[in-house]
């Protein structure tokens, strides 16, 4: 295992509580609609960690994580009322876009986030994924690469019962704090069917897997996302639905992926797949084009 991956999977850092302190300060700042400048974020992080980024107390990837956690806490607190007031998904989506604009653009990357593709799902896209999943109060929703919880929170406010998995150990305590009482596991998402406790059988999977990296493997892994998708489909209950965000090229009609999709459609049906312009990720510091795909597992 290389040193970067070891760092990403290290036990929770002693500074994890400071991350939550910063997130709560950001939440208090944006709740009345105040924009969070980079200077504001610097201030909140320095106060929470007792030192600056220049002193090595924190890095900017962690700072952006704090902003994402604040967004999750915001949606958990205000999302249900916002949904009710919005009346339509389109109006609610517009509200989320306004909230996203309050946070600074991710302009600085850590080596770990670049190498291991820790690109969280923007709030508007995360909400679209939950709409595509058609979450109901009877659903058990698995998020195999939960990150900071931006995908999971929209499944939760739609009434789904969550099961969260996140390989990076320093993110799991944050997920446990953000989603009290929700099971939080630490398995490799590419082997989630084999490793997840038997008691967890999701009726829905909503996921944004790594596009081309794999646990304990140096260098790019071209089919990393498909490995995660296949593992999640294996665990998904018959009649269930999987919604995934992947690279734009991972299409059932793309020559490179046609065989893989043909293989999974022995037990599933691809009901929707559409490319998403890279500008959807602009606030997260990239313009990489993505794709939203919906796959239903055939009922036995």
The run of helices and strands is: HHHHHHHEHEHEHEHEHEE
Shape: globular
Category from helices, strands and their pairing: alpha/beta
Report helical residue fraction: 40-55%
Q: What are the segments in which pLDDT stays under 50 over at least 5 consecutive residues?
A: 1-15
Cα end-to-end separation: 40 Å
Put simply, the count of helices is 12
Major sheet attributes:
7 strands, mixed
Total beta strands: 7
Residue share in β-strands: 5-15%
Strand order of the largest sheet: 3-2-1-4-5-7-6
Structural Rg:
18 Å
Q: Average pLDDT across residues?
A: 89
Features:
alpha/beta, 7-stranded mixed β-sheet, 13% strand, 300 residues
Explain the overall architecture.
The protein has helices at about 5-10, 15-30, 40-50, 60-85, 90-100, 110-115, 125-135, 150-155, 170-180, 190-195, 225-235, 260-265, and strands at about 140-145, 160-165, 185, 205, 240-245, 270-275, 290-295. By secondary structure, the chain is of the alpha/beta class. It has 12 helices and 7 strands. A 7-stranded mixed beta sheet has the order 3-2-1-4-5-7-6, with helices on both faces. Residues about 1-15 have low confidence and may be disordered.
Concise structural overview:
The chain has 300 residues and is an alpha/beta fold. 42% of the residues lie in helices and 13% in strands. The chain has a seven-stranded mixed beta sheet, with helices on both faces.
């Amino acid at each position: 295992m290389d040193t970067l991956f070891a760092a990403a999977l290290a036990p929770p850092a002693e500074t994890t509580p400071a991350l939550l302190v910063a997130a709560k300060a950001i939440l208090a700042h944006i709740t009345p609609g105040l924009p969070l400048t980079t200077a504001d974020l610097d201030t909140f992080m320095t106060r929470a960690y007792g030192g600056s980024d220049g002193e090595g107390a924190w890095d900017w990837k962690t700072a952006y994580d704090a902003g994402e956690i604040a967004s999750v806490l915001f949606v958990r607190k205000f999302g249900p009322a916002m949904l009710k007031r919005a009346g339509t998904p389109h109006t609610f989506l517009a509200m989320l876009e306004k909230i996203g604009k309050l946070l600074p653009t991710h302009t600085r990357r850590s080596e770990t986030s670049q190498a291991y593709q820790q690109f969280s799902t923007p709030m508007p896209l995360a909400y679209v994924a939950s709409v595509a999943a058609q979450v109901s109060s009877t659903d058990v929703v698995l998020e195999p690469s939960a990150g900071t919880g931006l995908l999971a929170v929209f499944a939760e406010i739609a009434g789904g019962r969550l099961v969260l998995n996140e390989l990076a150990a320093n993110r799991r305590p944050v997920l446990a704090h953000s989603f009290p009482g929700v099971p939080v596991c630490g398995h490799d998402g590419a082997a989630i069917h084999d490793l997840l406790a038997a008691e967890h059988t999701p009726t829905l999977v909503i996921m944004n897997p790594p596009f081309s990296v794999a646990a304990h493997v140096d260098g790019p892994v071209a089919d990393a996302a498909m490995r995660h998708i296949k593992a999640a489909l294996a665990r998904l209950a018959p009649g269930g639905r999987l919604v995934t965000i992947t690279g734009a090229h991972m299409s059932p009609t793309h020559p490179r992926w046609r065989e893989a999709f043909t293989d999974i459609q022995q037990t599933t049906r691809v009901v929707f797949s559409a490319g998403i312009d890279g500008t959807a990720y602009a606030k997260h510091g990239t313009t990489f084009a993505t794709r939203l795909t919906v796959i239903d597992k055939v009922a036995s």
